[in-house]
Amino acid sequence: MIATPAWPPQSTPRLFVEATLAPGSRRIDGPAAHYLISVMRLKAGDPVKLFDDETGEWLAVAATVNKRDLVVDVTDRLREREPVPDFWLCAAPLKKGRVDWMAEKACELGVARLIPVLTRRAVVDKLKTDRLRAHMIEAAEQCGRTALPRLAEPVKLPALLDDWPADRALFFADEMGGAPALAAMRAHAGPAAILIGPEGGFDASEREAIRALPQAIGITLGPRILRADTAAAAAVALWMAAAGDW
Asked: pLDDT below 50 — which residues of the chain?
């Protein structure tokens, strides 16, 4: 007996949309339409997967395809929005390519919130958050996520520490040393975050201010010196493993 082909097929394009999804017709235009029409060669009757970071992932079928826009019929919800571990990544902005990579990995690894933190030694003091969000959306589209990290506006380190929630642990990746990361993370259950400094590290006064925060826990990420973006990905992976997300 010939097996019935899977529907929708694995090759179905997948796309993030800003507005809340629900059954019914929906017009798609702009870059998303260009991608579906010109890159994926979507035709009337072809399926597409949509997700909105709110209601989950939906199946839609192309109804009409024009040169610059298309109309799809949203039919069935395929998945609810996935649960997200309560973990934040607080990181100093890096040079363009590396901060983009860090945002992608934050999305892929399951971070709930990404907070750019302005520090004294940061080589970047301005950040295009719309570009970072675009990189996270692309990562979510490619790796099958139905949730995106919440992206905060850049905040100066003193303001971050002043407003730090009383019930959230702040793991501080300190190049001067600390407790082994995995053991420390296993010992502190509940809401948490990791603070990663810039390429040049935190200065002495910043380190003192961080360590003065009662919720701060100094950790080490091992015997080797890691670049800031590598340290961010490694620390997030360790916390996810300690929390049982992996």
From this structure: none
pTM across the whole model: 0.91
Question: Which residue ranges form the domains of the chain, and what is each CATH number?
Answer: 14-79 (2.40.240.20), 87-242 (3.40.1280.10)
Residue 44 to residue 238: CA distance in whole angstroms: 45
| Residue-wise burial string across 89-121, b where 16 or more C-beta atoms lie within 10 A, e elsewhere | bbbbbbeeebbbbbbbbbbbbbbbbbbbbbbee
Cβ distance 221 to 173 under 8 Å?
yes
**Distance between CA 49 and CA 76 in Å, rounded?**
10
Q: Position of tokens 């990995």?
A: 105
Contact 117, 157 (CB under 8 A): yes
The rounded distance, in Å, linking the Cα atoms of 122 and 132 is: 17
Look at residue 10 in the predicted model and tell me its pLDDT. Answer: 79
What length does the chain have? 246
